[in-house]
Amino acid sequence: MTLNKSLVWFRRDLRAFDHAALHLALTSSNQVYCAFIFDTDILAPLPRADRRVEFIHACLQELDAALRALGGHLIVRHGVAADEIARLAAELEVDAVFVNNDYEAQAIARDALVAASLEQAGRQFFSSKDQVIFEKNEVLTLGEKTFSVFTPYKNSWLKKMAADPECLAPYSIEPHAARLAKAPAPASSEHRVPTLSDIGFASTNLRALGITPGMAGGAALFKDFVTRIEAYGEARNYPAVNGASTLSVHLRFGTVSVRQLVRSVNALVAGGGGGAGAAVWLSELIWREFYAMILFHHPRVAGHAFKPAFDAIEWETGAGADAAFEAWCLGRTGYPLVDAAMAQLNQTGYMHNRLRMVSACFLVKDLGIDWRWGERYFALMLNDYDLASNNGGWQWAASTGCDAQPYFRIFNPVTQSEKFDAQGRFIRRYLPQLAALSDKQIHAPWTVPATQLAQQGIRLGRDYPAPIVDHAIARARTLARYGVVKAPAL
C-alpha cells in the first residue's frame, strides 16, 4: 500500500518515537502530516485551571519541537475532534488518517464516526495497537473467553510475551522522517501550538510541583526509577518513601512507550538486575492492561458493577451522605491518613496507590457511599486519570469488580496508618496542624486526652475534625449492607 498524503491524529500517544500510527503512516505514505485536536467535548466540563490540560499543552510544545527537528511539524486545532479531523483531512487532501487504538466506549464511537465520515469522502481510516502490549482478544482463556481473574490473565500474558518477543519491538520513526510534511514558511502563529488562554484555560501549580511533562519528563522519571526498582516491591507501600515510579501520568498520555518500558523491565527480570521489584512493577503494568481489556469487553462497568448482583446494594443517601462525601473530598473525615491522602490529591493531582485503596475503602465501607461518587471525584482530580484503571481500582475497593477484594475485607484506616506511615511522615507533610503529635498519637488524635492535645495547641473540632464515623460501627453496617448480595468469598 502506497498512499500519497496521510494524517496522523495524536491522542494519548504524545511522543515522536516508537509510535505505531506514525510509523505505519510514514512507511506507507509519501507525505505525512501530524495533528492534535483539543477536543471541546472533553474539555467543556473541566475546570478552567486543570493540571491535565496544562500537562498536555506542554507535551504538545515538546512534540511540535521534536517533529520540527525531524523535519515536520504539529498542527493543533481546537474544536469537536470528529469534525476537526474530517475538516483537516479535506483541507490537506490526505488519502488516509492514522490513529492508535483507544478502548473506551465513547472513543470507539467517536472513531467509528470519523471513519464513516472519511469513507464518505473517499478517505481511509487506519487504527493500530500502541498503548498496550496486548489488547482486545489477544489474551484469552483456553476456552477462548475473556479473563475475569488477574493471576491467570497475567500468566497467559507472560507466556504470550515470551512466545512472541516481537510484540515488544519498537516502531522506528527517524529512518522515515524525510516523509514528514514540512512546516509552512515563514512559521506563523497559525502553525504553532495555541496558548492555554487561546483554548480557554489557565496555568496551574504543575511546574511548582516539580512535574516535568513530555517525553523528557517521562524519560527522566524512568531513568531514576530504574536505579531503585529493586526495592519497589516493598517501598511502593509507603507513601512517605520515594518508592513508586510516578510514571502513571506519562503512561496515560503516551509520553513514554509501554513497549520500551516492558523491554527494559523484562531485561532486568531476566537478568536478575532488578530483583523482585522489577517483576512486581511488570505485574503492575499488566494490571493496567487487564483493566483496559475488561473495559473493552465489558463497557457497562463504566457506571455499573462488574458483578451485576452488587448493583442491588443500597448506599447512603440524603443530606447526611452529601455532608460525609464533602468531608471526604475536602480531607475532613477526622482520620489522618485518609485526610492526608485527600490533601495530596487536591493539592497535587496525585495520590499514592496504597492511599487510593485506603481512601476508596473508607468512602465505600466506612461512610457507605456509592463507589461511583468517589470514582467521579478521582476522575476530576487525578493527573493520571484513566477510565479503565480508575474504574478497576474503585470496583476493586468496593468489592463490586472482577477479581476484587472480598466485601468483608474492610481496611481499618488507623491500622493502615500505623503500618504504612508508622512515623507519621506523610501525615505531617499534608496535615501540618498535627505535626506536634507523637508518632503514636498522630494516627488517631481523638484517642489523645484533650489536655494533652491542648498542650500541643490542638483542639478537635477547631484545628482538626473529630472522626465523622466510628469505624467499628461502620464495619458492622457494611457487612449488613453487603449481606443482601451474599457474595462468596474470593
Compact description:
Helices cover 47% and strands 7% of the residues. The protein is of the alpha/beta class and 490 residues long.
Indicate the low-confidence ranges by residue numbers. none
Major sheet strand order: 3-2-1-4-5
Mean pLDDT: 95
Shape descriptor reads globular
Number of helices: 20
Radius of gyration equals 24 Å
The end-to-end distance, rounded to whole angstroms, is 51 Å
H/E order of the elements?
EHEHHEHEHEHHHHHHHHHHHHHHH
Structural class: alpha/beta
Percent of residues in helices comes to 40-55%
Biggest beta-sheet profile: 5 strands, parallel
User: Beta-sheet strand percentage?
Assistant: 5-15%
DSSP summary, beta strand count: 5
Description:
The protein is of the alpha/beta class. Helix content is 47%, strand content 7%. The protein is built from 20 helices and 5 strands. It has helices spanning 20-26, 40-43, 51-69, 81-92, 105-120, 150-163, 214-226, 232-235, 248-253, 258-271, 275-297, 318-330, 336-348, 353-366, 371-381, 387-398, 413-420, 425-430, 450-455, 471-483, and strands at residues 3-10, 29-39, 74-79, 96-100, 124-128. The chain has a 5-stranded parallel sheet with strand order 3-2-1-4-5, with helices on both faces. Helix 4 (81-92) runs parallel beside helix 5 (105-120) and helix 10 (258-271) runs antiparallel to helix 11 (275-297). The relative contact order is 0.10.
